[in-house]
Amino acid sequence: MDEEKRQFLEQRYAASEWRGQTTGGILENFGFSGSEIAGWTLLRAQRNPAAPSFLQSLWGHGDARDEVLSVRVVECATADAAGDQLIEELGNCQSPAIERRTGANAVGDVAFGLGATMTLFARANMVVAISNAGPKVVSVAAIAQEIDALILERLEALPVA
Amino acid sequence: MIEIEAIQFNYDPGAATHDAFNVRKNAAQTITVPEWRRFASVNPEDSPAAYSVASAKGNTISIHVSLSCSDPAVVSAEVRVPHHVKTRAVHFAGGATSFLAFELFDPPVSHGRVGIWDLDWHWEYRLPSHHHWHPLTTTRHRIYVVMDVPSAPWNQTPFSGANTQLPWTDVLDYACRWAEGAHSVDHAAAIVTERVYALGPTVVTYDCPGGGSSHYSNPTFDCTAFLDRMKGGLGNGIYVNCSDCATILSTFANALGCDLWQSQMGYGFSLNPLLAIGSNVWQTACGWGGFNYHEVAWEGACTAAEDVWDACLEVNGSSNPTGPPFVPLLPRDLEFGNPGSLLYRDRLAAPAGRPNCQPRPTTRQRRVVT
Question: What confidence category does residue A109 fall into, taking pLDDT thresholds of 50, 70 and 90?
Fold first, then answer.
């Protein structure tokens, strides 16, 4: 990323306030079986092995295929790298209206969102972007909670170092 | 008795001056040479070949053809395709020939414009000392013509199945149809810009719900997903942002021989009202008021002095771009400009935002096609 852009984003999204606030553990080969999001069907999942590797998935609700979600999971080498990746992902969003999410319902170690229709968060070494991909716009808030819970569950299942 | 066994259009992978240039079908499928093979090639799309106007200009274009003959008494013949392939003598050794060069009459590339031609070649032969020509067979071919050999991210070497950056005929299917009749690279890029923008709102639309996120261009160009979307599939969904549009536009235009980059401007600037792809409402991009960044297809060094092509939005082309009247202007070959010049920057960014709407040539790239 262009260094001036990185500086702009770090300042815009107050990175100094949230860097280092990370859950322990490193997940690898994160995948979906298709049953992870209640009421949604996994339509497609494709892993890109280039570093950092990411899993791009599409989920559908109902038969009409007008409710579609994109769930992109980036697997970073470390939690610090996930913070950098979060800035990278924010750097691919044109909107200045994306804001940090805090409070009891916030997901991840750090999260950003636009209304209830897009969520971007980091948890441990993972960065997750959830957004609409179909013409009928739906809330992604509950789905973000489910995926964050799934990540936490898999982190807790890691062998103790 | 006499048969055409195979035809090579791209018989010299190292050049495109007298033959076709190197292509593949898509990320997963290659195109082998000879492109036309007896029994295997039936429809035009089974025998694709692509030519460059700039490379072939003034040159004789030829193909290489192998033939067979099942009659041992026949050792030679003349072969042609009226109006397409010049007559030449062929000699059979053991009932077959090697690959022989045949010159073409007035091939599509000689017309000097972009397009796709589906050709039916009705081959004929004549035996020595006979006056009459006899029908031999009909072969069908799909000929793509572009203005110049595709530029990056497309490349020509190595010509191997492992090189996924060889130009894709699945991309040329759209790019050449879109820009049909274009006679210059700028003309082709202008038409591609119009066609990409016209994909909204049914095929793609601006990503208001997702904050203008990249769905097809992060970090590489997921052209496979985009082509799936174009064919009625899900692709990566309906939403696009500026990086997606800049990447689609420049990659498809560069397949036609244009020389565009994807490059950004910014960071953090307020906007004039605009029409984002898929929208018919003049507003400041989903009502946000500004952009953190914007990305377009850009020429040359991607500075204020160079021209931009923007398939993501229409700006206000009136004398005062900050308000009504709104005159839709799709930026094509429009200089980026400096504040006060009433060029691209002034039409996109509000007066207060113009100082922060700076060209960022260090972001200049051509995303790999996947």
Answer: very high
A5 touches chain B (CB under 8 A): yes
Cα separation, B311 vs B274, in Å, equals 12
* Closest A-chain CA to B364: A2
> A132 near A68, Cβ under 8 Å?
yes
Q: Can you tell me the ipTM of this complex? A: 0.95
Q: Which residue of A has its CA nearest to B263?
A: A2
Window 58-97 of A, Cβ < 8 Å to B: 58, 65, 68, 70, 89, 91-97
Q: Is B218 among the domain residues?
A: yes
Query: Which residues 207-226 of B have a C-beta within 8 angstroms of A?
Result: 207, 209-215, 218-220, 222
Task: Answer whether residue B265 shows pLDDT above 70.
Answer: yes
Residue (of B67, B25, B80, B66) closest to B224 by Cα position? B25
User: Within this chain, do residues B94 and B197 fall inside the same structural domain, yes or no?
Assistant: no
How far is CA B338 from its chain centroid?
Answer: 32
- Structural domain including B57 reads 2-146
A74: chain B residues, CB-CB within 8 Å: none
Taking residues B245-264, report their average pLDDT. 98
Residue at A161 is within a domain = no
Q: Are residues B265 and B354 in the same domain?
A: yes
